[in-house]
Amino acid sequence: ATLEATLLDTEGLGDAAEPAYAVLDDLAARAQRAYADLVHETPGFVDYFKASTPVSEIGALNIGSRPTSRKPTTSISDLRAIPWVLAWSQSRVMLPGWYGTGTAFEEYIGGGEGDGDDAEDRLQVLRDLYRRWPFFATVLSNMAQVLAKSDLGLAAHYAELVEDEALRRRVFDKIADEHERTIRMHKLITGHDDLLADNPSLARSVFNRFPYLEPLNHLQVELLRRYRSGDEDELVQRGILLTMSGLATALRNSG
Fold this sequence. Notes:
The chain has one domain (14-251). It has 12 helices and no strands. It has helices at 2-7, 17-39, 45-52, 55-60, 81-90, 101-110, 119-132, 134-149, 152-159, 165-190, 200-228, 234-251.
């Protein structure tokens, strides 16, 4: 029985498996609350999303095999998964792949009051999980890959498409704060200064593509501005399609 348990302990956690899953459930609940707070509770979020990403053009220009929404409503909940992810990747926010995780980690580390654990103890729990549990390490690695492809400088240019300045600042600042927090927490838990330190070949591949992506992002913002101003020239529409295709191909996170 001992040999069987050892051989079948594919998670590498042994007797610590149950506490590890409890930590994961805790983190998931915290991340979900932070994500829902942005997407469902932030006033004007839907307007910000539609203005700062090409999600409306994905539907208007017939990108994809199905309508962007399940119903003709303005609800985020009715939006299909692919246009939701595609729109955020085009604007270089990559939001669905990381938002809420930084808050979850930060709250968990600082939330030990009453259980006898201090922040350093709870941080060590996460570090041990990262070291011992391949699943947890893979989750952080996948998140880091998405974060590495994000660019909040370029995302700020897309945010300029939001005409309501107060709305723009309110939502973008919230996203930027969580972006910084998530990268900081990733470094704190993994001990890596670079997001892709555990995969140098991928890092080279990703960063070698960046010089070709930035012009596409700038071009897309300008074409979106023209299209939304009433310029329905076929070349403008074709240009939007081409920039979307180029970015989706290079980023490989199209949804």
